[in-house]
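Q: Structure tokens for this one, please.
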Amino acid sequence: MAGKAKYRSQAGIVYDILQAIASEGKAPATRIMYAARLPYDRLRQMLDHLESVGLVREVADEDRTYYTLTSKGMETLQELRRTKRLLEQLGLRF
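A: Here is the predicted structure, written as tokens:
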């Protein structure tokens, strides 16, 4: 019998992206893609959105593009961590 598919919430996807960037300090899109388990086209949409709301910043370094967290992005990641812990304590999936 096949297991039930487990879908992440939008908040869970944002959390995974922000966490991936935070763990690297600055991260290329491919590293974030693998860490956040997203196809490249979906990741690009999410990064564009996160940049438009001021959570991430695109940084060119020589011939590569990296993403870093803004201070607002760090604050958001901290809030998402707290929310994730609270929901898990209640037995809910984030």
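A few notes: The mean pLDDT is 92. The radius of gyration is 14 Å.
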